[in-house]
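Subject: Protein record for review, amino acid sequence with backbone structure tokens
How to read it: Take the token row as a discrete description of the fold.
Enclosed: The protein record, placed directly beneath this head.
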Amino acid sequence: MTPQSKIINRKSKIVLITGAAGGIGRATVQLFSEKGWHVIGVDRNPFGDGFPENGLFVQSDIARPEDMHAIFEKAHAFTDQLDALVNNAAMQIAKPLIETTVEEWDAVMASNLRSVFLSAKLAHPLLKAHGGAIVNVSSVHAVQTSANIAAYAASKGGLLALTRAMAIEFAPDNIRVNAILPGAVDTPMLRAGLERGHVGHGGMQERLDNLARKTVNGRVGTPQEIAHSIYFLADNEQSSFMTGQALVIDGGATARLSTE
């Protein structure tokens, strides 16, 4: 549903979520909607059924600057302010560094890092209106990584540095900026990576079980668990004194020594 005029009832908060069509993004859309927020969702894939009718959902590629400008033109037509921006969209290329092409490297950086820089710039006037929050979805690969995922790890590490820089620059405008670092979460991206055979052997369930054994909790995470952590960082009532921080949600995977 695409409203023809700006939302009048400002009792409801508004969030813009990228990568909103699947996995963590879809769970985040559902949670914010359940909490009474209006959602502007963006994804390069079709949305399908089951999304809130009182939101604005745009199929577009955030890796393309011209598309990002068009997205925010629609956002400005929908609302005069944003209460939160969730930069969740990402792509992953799982292959050895020496086999990664310049085009593949640039595609990952455009999707995972440059898009966040640009969305923050374009969202700033809307977030500044009454003070909002930005949540950047990074990854545990920003702090501890593995073979054959260098471009993704570098983009997520850069996102942590960008989060800190944004937090410092946006603080005078009462905009908080934090990052969340999910570990192994059962999403289409995780399963696609496992299908490529770079992690584990055997069938999909066996590969998921192998990942689960590497966490302290003994399981992989769910998109809904990550969505709740995103909501915590986005909600000014719950995390009002947090900015420039990185919240790790990985079932304890990074807490355990690899030599154990």
User: Anything to note?
Assistant: The chain has two domains: 14-183+222-249, 184-220. The chain has seven helices and seven strands. Residues 87 and 116 are 6 Å apart (CA to CA).
